[in-house]
């Protein structure tokens, strides 16, 4: 088996706030907004919005009522610390940085080298409107 991810689903606090952001963010990564779908999973009491790409389906889910006011914190057990998307070059990281700024992403770290992760590790870090952290990275691996 190859370690390939088929789909990712992330719970957000408010789909009405999250959806407009992801509608802008995911096309930057190559998702076709026309392949977006919405649904409800009655058995588990959540709504989902899925963005389809031939390589990955990315979904955002509504929270359970009991958790809807919880603060998002990436250091909670079981929480997503951050999600990194692989760029094809340092130039692409730089280009995506400008696009992410343009859609209102909260930039945590502008594009630069992060030698603590490897001598050629070039990345930017940002958060969505609710504080979920993402990364765009390019690294020349041997």
Throw out a few tags for this protein.
142 residues, 2,3-Dihydroxybiphenyl 1,2-Dioxygenase, domain 1, four-stranded mixed β-sheet, 8 strands, globular
Question: Would you kindly provide a written description of the structure presented here, covering whatever features stand out?
Answer:
The protein is an alpha/beta fold and 142 residues long. The chain has 2 domains: 65 residues, 2,3-Dihydroxybiphenyl 1,2-Dioxygenase, domain 1, CATH 3.10.180; 65 residues, 2,3-Dihydroxybiphenyl 1,2-Dioxygenase, domain 1 (Roll), CATH 3.10.180. The strands form 2 sheets. The protein has a 4-stranded mixed beta sheet, covered by helices on one side. Strands 5-8-7-6 form a 4-stranded mixed beta sheet, with helices on one face. A hairpin with a 4-residue loop joins strand 2 and strand 3. The radius of gyration is 16 Å and the shape is globular. The protein starts with 6 loop residues before the first strand and ends with a strand. The mean pLDDT is 95.
């Amino acid at each position: 088996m190859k370690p390939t991810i088929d789909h990712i689903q992330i719970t957000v606090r408010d789909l009405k706030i999250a959806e407009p952001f992801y509608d802008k963010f995911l096309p930057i990564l190559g998702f076709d907004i026309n392949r977006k779908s919405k649904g409800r999973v009655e058995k588990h009491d959540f709504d989902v919005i899925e963005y389809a790409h031939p390589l990955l389906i990315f979904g955002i889910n509504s929270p359970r009522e009991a958790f809807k006011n919880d603060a998002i914190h990436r250091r909670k057990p079981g929480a997503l610390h951050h999600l990194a998307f692989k760029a094809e070059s340092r130039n692409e990281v730089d280009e995506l940085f400008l696009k992410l700024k343009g859609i209102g992403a909260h930039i945590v770290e502008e594009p630069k080298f992060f030698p603590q992760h490897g001598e050629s590790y070039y990345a930017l870090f940002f958060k969505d409107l609710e504080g979920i952290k993402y990364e765009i990275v390019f690294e020349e691996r041997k």
